[in-house]
Amino acid sequence: MQPILSVNGVSKTYASGHQALKTVDLEIAKGEIFALLGPNGAGKTTLISIICGIVTPSSGTILVDGYDAVAEPRQARMKIGLVPQELSVDMFETVQATTRYSRRLFGRGSDHDYVDQVLKDLSLYDKRNAKVMELSGGMKRRVLIAKALAHEPDILFLDEPTAGVDVSLRRDMWKLVHKLRDKGTTIILTTHYIEEAEEMADRVGVINKGELLLVERKAELMKKLGKREMDIALVEPMAAIPADLGEWHLALEDEGTRLRYTFDAQAERTGIPSLLRKLSDLGIQFKDLDTSKSSLEDIFVDLVAEREAVA
């Protein structure tokens, strides 16, 4: 399938010499939800700004549904809706007026029915005649999304869409993103909330210090890099881990009442049977076993730490 977005060899170095973005290659399929995950200052916003034509790349090409974002900026930008991190909207306009104006900015003819439907989808229709300044922070963010969708883009960029909003609104936003995808919109979001990427994305890209470390399907990423943990609840507290258990690299937690063993679930041998036999040989009794898989946050922290160690 032809990608709706293709980024090839894109980098950004400012006049000061600061390299905000190292060479990036990335393809996004039509209709997918792609999460660009990384800490603040990792290069997420720089990459989005380049794709959207706000920042000029130092090298590389960007094709947006076949249009060159540098050579054909108007055609490429028509395909894109951008919801920025910062609130950037006329506070004295009504919700309906500012959304209709955004549509006209892209040369689209008036279509009040379409704009009204967007407002309904975003639970803004009842507030259509209210001035933006009268809305709550969460509602203002919804207005930004309405403005971004007003010209019927094929790709919607959400730059830290739930930064600073409460948990309830964050989950509402997640539902909205899935609804938009169901209508055929390609969603690309940046976030430093691990749970956001884990909840919404089909694929995850991990970026740190301007370098795209990897791009992988979420399930495959967790399968390949995710570890499992086994907690062993002991009958009697333990002051220290015996030397005979050294090969399993256990951690002693909860004031000596619990042993934690981290293992690779995909490995041919997990080490669990031999560990349990060794515990029995040493007369160490346990009353419960519990295993859990690592989260995307665990994977992200391990991956970044690994790369920094190599550097």
TrEMBL record:
Residues 5-234 form the ABC transporter domain. InterPro entries: AAA+_ATPase, ABC_transporter-like_ATP-bd, ABC_transporter-like_CS, ABC_transporter_ATP-binding, P-loop_NTPase. SMART domains: AAA. It comes from the Bacteria. Keywords: ATP-binding, Nucleotide-binding, Transport. It holds the Pfam family ABC_tran. One of its GO terms (molecular function) is ATP binding. The keyword ATP-binding applies. PROSITE patterns: ABC_TRANSPORTER_1, ABC_TRANSPORTER_2. PANTHER family: ABC TRANSPORTER ATP-BINDING PROTEIN (PTHR42711). This is Multidrug ABC transporter ATP-binding protein. It comes from Sphingomonas turrisvirgatae.
